[in-house]
Amino acid sequence: MRIDILTLFPEMFHDVLNESILRIAQEKNLVTFHLHNIRDYSNDKHKCVDDKPYGGGAGMVLKPEPIFNAVDAVEAQGDSVSKKILLTPQGNKLNQKIVENLSEETRLMVICGHYEGFDERIRSGMNVLEISIGDYVLTGGEIPAMVIVDAVVRLIPGVLGGDRSLQSESFMNKMLEYPQYTRPAEFRGMRVPEILKSGNHSKIKEWRKKKAVLRTQERRPDLLEKETQ
Ligand SMILES: C[S@@+](CC[C@H](N)C(=O)[O-])C[C@H]1O[C@@H](n2cnc3c(N)ncnc32)[C@H](O)[C@@H]1O
Predict the structure, then answer these.
(1) Residue 149 labeled ligand binder
(2) Distance (Å) from CA 141 to ligand 1 centroid
(3) Which residues form the tRNA methyltransferase TRMD/TRM10-type domain (predicted)?
């Protein structure tokens, strides 16, 4: 998969993209990341990318021209069309289903906003998937872009060592994951459930399934309701 990230702050991505699973995914040639500074695509001699809002009001709005220029130029660099993601708190709220669908694409372009956000024509004049990472407002789209990239890349087949572990993860089966334990068997008086030490794999599977259902009922009954709808 090729992932292009359009941002005013490309330096913010360096450590995140080059550590842990995202680094390994690149080493395995399963993903390539391409960072593009939106400012480089401004026609303005001062490389200005924002301006005051028409009608007045606080803050600055990202102008359409640098972003359209950047999207056109970056799109032309690859040999396939990108699925374009516009990051905005007004978009569809990110969930594991959206992440799964995105992980099947061959090319993604992630467009990060800043300041007061985008000129409306960026949203309406481009074929974009508008995504929010939650009902709160961040300073810019860089952290949301990192969230999406991380969630998507780990689902690309071959990225995680044992893809088996994905199957039981929270949200994969519209359920939360069962409780996990590791050594020591007892810590500050709290014991690992005996069943997990029994070596009886079918009983352990049964226990985990029961715990996953219970945990989901207690914490996220909405997930089970969605399942039965
Ligand atoms: C300060 S926000 C702009 C918010 C905008 N004025 C509004 O009220 O909808 C600046 C940029 O941060 C990003 N952003 C902020 N919160 C976000 C969220 N919850 N999900 C995705 N992107 C977000 C977007 O790219 C947005 O254009």
Answers:
(1) no
(2) 6
(3) 1-226
